[in-house]
Write the structure tokens for this entry.
Amino acid sequence: MDDTAKVTSHDLCAALKLEHPSDEYVTMFEVRESVGSAHGSRADAIVLSLWPSRGFEMTGFEFKVSRSDWLGELKNPAKADRIARYCDRWCLFAAPGVVKEGELPVGWGLWELTATRQIRRKVPSITREPEPMPRAFLASLMRSRARLDAEDLAALHARQRHEWEKEQRLREKDAASGPDAATRRELERLRIGLNKLDEIREATGIDLANYTPSQQWIERMRLADSVALEHKLRLLRDLFADHELRKRIEIALRPEDGNGR
């Protein structure tokens, strides 16, 4: 397949838009000679510079992606002048191989878009003295710009919709494959906690899943892993005759009765 067949009008539009950043240029497509019923000629694109240093230059573009379409254009090249006369430059933007050497009208520039989507400026366009724009053509420019705003907005909505659908698919995929990482961590913590409750039940006889212990039992559980401390309490109880101290130690060492006292 040759380069000509690989390049479409859409490719030309996209490349032209990328070549002219929106903060430096206004790029409009399918600009007609006039609004209303008598449309007349049409430029495939108009690019207007927004910088004074570039003289607010306006360039018109004709798109051609097939050899036959270009040959048809050559039969009446003056048709383009109906809009080109309002532009500082006029340029043909084509697929490679569409235009043969010596076919380009005098003053026209030639850009080609390669199969790798690179713009190749083959012939520079000649600066001309533009005619004053009539209001009919100015209205057509404004209409093309408004249409571009609507298309840009639609493209933005489409891109946002695409991102939302992408995120939704990821969420559905995660849901289908099981809980996410945070949920898995919580489930692991729950499993560990339940195992600890089982260990406490086996060691103390207290089922914390169905019973809230008193403060006395909580204190005893704190001492459960300290055999040495319990031994010292018992030693203090046996060595000292202080009635109040012995009483407190007995309370600390005494298990709860069945009524939770």
Observations:
- The chain has a mean pLDDT of 78.
- Residues 135-177 form the longest helix (43 residues).
- The beta strands are 25-32, 42-49, 58-64, 89-94, 109-113, 119-123.
